[in-house]
Specification:
This protein is an alpha+beta fold and about 90 residues long. It is about 55% helix and about 15% strand. α1 (about 5-10) runs antiparallel to α4 (about 40-50). The two termini are about 30 Å apart.
């Protein structure tokens, strides 16, 4: 996916918090909903945006869908930001 879509997905605080939750372990939509004072439909929409940006993946286990973070897209974004800032991969300013 494109960087623009990634940055748009990361612009929302609820979506960033969902990513924080998923860095610990995969969670079902219901488990994610428990952490937010918004409707299940709203969380579902946030999950869709994150999935469209390829920031998360889902897998079905029986009747449940579990979501997990896709770190490769985050790593690419971080490398781009570091390059923009002028930092090499060894954390040295260039």
């Amino acid at each position: 996916m494109g960087l623009q879509q990634t940055l748009k997905a990361l612009s929302d605080p609820i979506r960033r918090e969902i990513l924080n939750l998923l860095k610990q372990r995969a969670l079902s939509a219901g488990e994610i909903c428990e952490h937010f004072p918004v409707t299940g439909a709203s969380v579902s929409r946030h999950l869709s945006v994150l999935k469209e940006a390829d920031l998360i993946r889902d897998r079905r286990e029986g009747k449940f869908i579990f979501y997990e973070i896709n770190t490769s897209v985050l790593e690419e974004t971080m490398l781009w930001l570091a390059d923009l800032k002028g930092v090499s991969q060894n954390n040295e300013e260039v």
